[in-house]
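Supplementary Methods, section 5.1.

A reviewer requested that the exact input to the structure prediction be made available. We therefore reproduce it here, unchanged from the version used in the analyses.
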Amino acid sequence: MEKELISLKEQWDKLKAEQPKLRIREAAKQLHVTEAGLVNTGVGEYNIRLNSQFQELLKEVNTLGKVLALTRNDYCVHERKGVYKKASFNGHIGLVVTPDIDLRLFMDQWQFGFAVNENNRRSLQFFDQHGEAVHKIYLTEESDESAYHLLVAKYRAEEQLQELLIAPAREAVDETPDEEINVEGFRDAWRALQDTHHFFGMLRKYGVTRTQALRLAPDDYAKPLEVDVLKKTLQTAAGTQQEIMVFVGNPGCIQIHTGPVQKLLETGPWFNVLDPDFNLHLRLDGVASAWLVKKPTSEGLVHSIEAFDEAGNIVIQYFGKRKPGIPESEGWRALLKNLGLL
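The structure derived from this sequence is encoded token-by-token as follows.
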């Protein structure tokens, strides 16, 4: 096992020397290994393996002060700065709900954790059973580095040099043929929704995938859009100073920004938000479809813009700024009208 780790470390060191700007996620793909596997090669030298008490650790991240929380999938990276406080858990479901750091955590997907030192940039990084990154927490210039070292020492794994037992990559979900779905029952259930949070449970009940649900939606409840609507929405929000909600996630974590977007920059296939406390990097060529989706609630209709990759995985969602019990904002509806979507 040690020989294998050393060999992989040598391959990665060579790759870093050849391509110094290469991100670890891309390096893992080039080397046909997982990102967690690459991080593990640094244990004993500059990285530290953490034990599995992730919930307890997350409750203490507030001691670090202002940090950067990062959650991503293959085609979108969401970075938000703030104080990581009010972490709470109900079984495997966790919440961090503050105006700055706003997370939904699915802890049954969290398998490996590391304290990582990349060129003196310190972070806590967490990975799922497949070796895919679910969430990362980086120190900023305003963080308490001594608190970080105390936290790492407290949650350091007893055994550092361990082989990672990584599960095979997730298999694509086989979609149930449309003719086997109770389409009318599904449509009636959609029209009868009272809370957006019940949408996923409805999909499971009727055995439909998200993209299949949008195809089978009741009349006028889901409308296909051009992919460039993702860029236009951010541009319009910036131009009108309209606060929006931006959701980005993966099976282990969903991260949300609520507020304005201001500095926008397009670089090749990436469309970016580069604000002081919120950065977004959206790879437009990875988006296969975009939709306007309507969901009934007890306070009226809620409209979202949702984007998916070729495999049907959700890449990003936009909503108007709202809280439970409060109707959707007129400003968000005005933005959608401005885009010709309503």
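The longest strand covers residues 133-143. These observations are discussed further in the main text.
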